[in-house]
Amino acid sequence: MAVKSTDRRKEKRKSLRTRFIAMVSMLICLILMFVGYVINNQVRDQVIKQMKNKGEALAKNIAANSTEALLTGDELSLGVYVDKMSEDPSIVYAMILDDRGKVITHSDLSVKKGSAFKDLVSLRAINSDKPLIQDGYSERYGNYIDVAMPMMRDNTRIGIVRIGFSHREITEASKRLRNTIAIIACAGVLMGILTTWFLISRITRPLQQLTRGAEIVGGGNLDYRINLFSRDEIGQLANSFNKMTTKLKTAQEELIEQERLKNELHIAQQI
Length: 271
Fold this sequence. Notes:
By secondary structure, the chain is of the alpha+beta class. The chain folds into two domains: 2-34 and 174-264, no CATH class; 45-167, PAS domain (Beta-Lactamase, 2-Layer Sandwich). Helices cover 65% and strands 15% of the residues. It has helices at 2-65, 67-71, 75-86, 120-126, 168-218, 233-270; strands at 91-98, 103-106, 132-138, 142-153, 156-166. It has a five-stranded antiparallel sheet with strand order 2-1-5-4-3, with helices on both faces. A hairpin with a 4-residue loop joins strand 1 and strand 2. Mean pLDDT is 84; it is low at 1-6.
């Protein structure tokens, strides 16, 4: 029975330790998930902002440099500008349109000269006389950023430069960040488990000494003392336990002495 009781106490201690570790691990996971979510959104927003700034600067530069070629009808030079832009792997399309929004040259050779795009993003780009940056989606490009820059001469729009940036770079950056956060999370959980195991062991070890002391004293050994020198609550509990054991020892000795005197008196009366 004593062995079974000890086993049950060990199971309870293990259960307490396991619960603490599970709680700490869950807390660490929740914190890292929240922090990861915030950081991922911030990084995503920053990458999008940088991409838009990059697109605006590139479109502005192309618009300024290709104005003369557009006025002189130098489509070869315009095509060179478009080809240069499309060398960037993050750019899914580049085009130069006339003042009516019709294609003069396009990075996709299957798009014919004079074609006009009727989608909402294109219509807004065509109808704007100011730089315009939009978020769009198509089955071909997925999510993308469209940058439209008007080509101006004497305050009159003579053409439009349009560049489309894929969200692939944003998605890849987010994926890399998520992988990094996952690695950090695993390391954090592991460190949390080890730290919790160490701390709980430091807490449960004195409790085990108290439990063992109670078992020994309960078995009749009132000379046993618990040697805990910590100044925390557990140390105070051990000190109180030792005082209680001392009082029990004194009470037992007094009881034995009383019984001895009683027996001697009884013998004396019989004589």
